[in-house]
Amino acid sequence: MILTIIGTWIAAILTLSIFSFLYKDNPFYKLAEHVYVGVSAGFWVLYIWEFDVKPLMWDRFFSETGLERYILLIPGLLGAAMLMRWFPKISWVSRYAIAFTVGIGAGLGITGSIHGFILPQMRGTLLPFTNPNNIILVVGVVTTILYFFFSREHKGALGGAARVGIVFVMVSFGASFGYTIMARISLLIGRIYFLLHDWLHIVK
């Protein structure tokens, strides 16, 4: 019970410290910001160790037998090489691990974008025109692509299609912005409810 009360007061003080930035930048906000960044970094370090490094490399290394066991040394060495960035004299070692990681990330990003965005978008665009919504969707996709076609000047039919495409782009941006605002408002409501319900007990 006492720990719950202490935790609630700490959370309320940190919440008010973050809100104090609405007035101006101040030491209370900076303290809460540093606490948030530090706790987040510590959480992710423990999370990666507990759910990635320990079960996938450490535990498997001592449980596996044969060649599979020593293959696990490769990611371990690459991870250790990245930590060499902390030592200026041998920081160049980390470049090999970073280059390897960036290469894998680029390859996975390309294939992930193709299978996760391009192909689903193509399948979603190949629709019958029996439904008016399908027509709007196909027109939006085609005209948006034409808007980003810069090999020719946007004149004539291409210019007209590009102007229609920019309307769809603006609608998409507006919807994304509105969704972001609603998400932030939802977070704000959650923190205000916490202050009034859990901390001050004004509302039930």
Descriptive overview:
The protein is mainly alpha-helical and 204 residues long. The chain has a domain of 78 residues. 80% of the residues lie in helices and 0% in strands. The chain has seven helices and no strands. The longest helix has 44 residues. It is extended.
Question: Roughly what percent helix?
Answer: over 70%
Overall pLDDT score? 93
Order of helices and strands: HHHHHHH
Category from helices, strands and their pairing: mainly alpha
Unreliable stretches: none
Gross geometry = extended
Quickly count the helices.
Answer: 7
Share of residues in strands: under 5%
Number of strands: 0
Query: Mind summarizing the main beta sheet?
Result: none
Whole-number radius of gyration?
A: 26 Å
Distance between the terminal alpha carbons, to the nearest Å? 19 Å
For this entry, give a set of tags:
mainly alpha, 7 helices, 204 residues, extended
Short synopsis of the structure:
The protein has helices at 2-19, 27-63, 67-71, 73-82, 93-125, 132-147, 156-199. By secondary structure, it is mainly α.
How are the SSEs ordered, and which strands pair?
Layout: H1 2-19, H2 27-63, H3 67-71, H4 73-82, H5 93-125, H6 132-147, H7 156-199
Helix pairs in contact: 1-2, 1-7, 4-5, 6-7
